[in-house]
Every structure is written in C-alpha cells, then in structure tokens.
Amino acid sequence: MLSPAGTGADRIAELFWWMLAGGLVIWVAVVALGVYAVRARPHRHSPKVSTSLIVGGGVVLPVVLLTALLWYGLKLIPTLQMPGGEPQVRVVVTGEQWWWRVRYRAAGADPIELANEIRLPVGATSELLLESADVIHSLWIPAIAGKVDMIPGRTNRLIVQPTETGVFRGVCAEYCGTAHAAMEFSAVVMEPEAFADWLAAQAQPAIGVEGAEPTAGETGFLANGCGACHRIRGTAADGRLGPDLTHVASRVGLAAGVLPNRRETLKRWIREPHALKPGVRMPAFDMLPEPEIEQIAAFLDSLQ
Ligand code: CUA
Asked: Integer distance in angstroms from the first to the last C-alpha of the chain?
C-alpha cells in the first residue's frame, strides 16, 4: 500500500502521509501541553491567558488542522473515481465464495473467462466492473488502487491505472465466510503488446485438445465428473460452478492464491483441497489411484 504502482494507490499513499503528519503534530502538541500543565506552578497565568490557551489549543487548532486534512481528503475522491481518460480495457470481476471469476469482453467473441488473475496493460486506464455471486466481497489491490465492495445485485466500478509492470497481490477485504482469508488473486501488469498477445492467446481454446486424440489425463478429467463444475473450452467439460480451466497452466497461482501453480501442487489440490483451504466447495478426489491423479495433473499442467 505504501509502495504504490498505480495512480489511485499513490494518491492514497500521499493522503496517508499527510494524515500521519497532521496526526503527529496534534499528538506532539497535546503531549507537550500535558507535560507543561503537570509541571507549571498553579495560578502562574492570568485567567485571560489561561482562557486563550484553552480556546486556541482546544478549539481553534483542531478545527483548522482537521478541516485542512478533511478538505484535502475530500478533494481526492473525484480523482480516484476517474483518473483521466476513457477506459481501454473492461474486465468484469465476480466475487464468489472463495475465488474470483474474471471475464474480458472481446469484440464479437465469447467473453474470455479466467480465475484468480487479473491482467492489465501498464500505463493504460482499465475499468473493473465488480459483481458478487453470493455475499459481499471487496476487491483490493493495495499497490494499484483503493478497495471497492462487491455487492450482490449491483455492479460497482473501479478505475485503475497501473504505472509499473509486475505481479501484485490482490485480496478480498470484506469478511465473506470460512475461506475469506484464502481469497486472493494476482494482478499481473504487462507491457501493452505483451498484454494484447496474452489476451489473444486466452481467447483461443485450450492448446492441443481440440481435434487431437484425448490424453489419459483428459479422459480421467471427464470420467471423474470434473467437467460438471469446470469448463475447458475445446473439450466436453462445460461446468460453470467453478473456475474455468481453459488456460489454467498459464496462471500464477492455484485456488485463489493458496498455492503456486505447479504439477505437484495441482496433484495436492486434487487430492486434498479441504486440508489446503478449509471451507472450499470442491470435493476431494483422494479415492483416485495416484497414477490417475498424476495423469489429470499432467493434462491440466499442459493447458497453457
Ligand atoms: Cu470474499 Cu472476503
């Protein structure tokens, strides 16, 4: 939060430092007056001086200082809601218990859906449309912008303008049930050309599955009913309850920030999701023999 990489976050960081400085001035003045009051001889000052100390220090100073800080804070709000320019990218982000459904709208094509990862071009203005599928969540990428609630039945907007490339941590900032603390995502800020290439690749069906002879892993994925909740474009898996896995291997993390995305962690997640993320809705598949879990993990790991 205090090392900002976006125009919203740098204004908020600046506000924090001004508030801190203002608070420090008031604190030092109050403590100094307290020490003076304890040490000063009684009746040292005339009643007139005493009254002006009380009115000046107790009324005038706080009113002036707090009004100045409040004015400065209120002045920031409009600039946070629209930091210049029409948005170049629109992303619909839906909070679900306990992960993030992320959809990009491509002109004339199906929306591109992914999970727990929001990619944005650096230097551009992007609009996040925030929705909820169940309870109130709150989306917060501390390094990039302020937080905005996701409320069932409403669409809230958050305008973001990242200024640096990199991978930034995003969190849910509103208690939303058992796994609230394990509801994170990655905000990946890329150069505009790399972002355009990434988006074009995400629009394609999963690489190597369409038309090809299904691998043992794909067959196992479908045979065990994974496709009832998960969708993989280009295969028969068309579930909408859980995260879309079309390009799951291209993502930074697994299970909304719980695990790094590797074949080993995929296997652990299939075997024991509840041990890794208490409250998660996905059933455990620990009854499957190890070679079958290995095959399914290898299939998912191939979905770049
Ligand atoms: Cu979602 Cu807390």
From this structure: 32
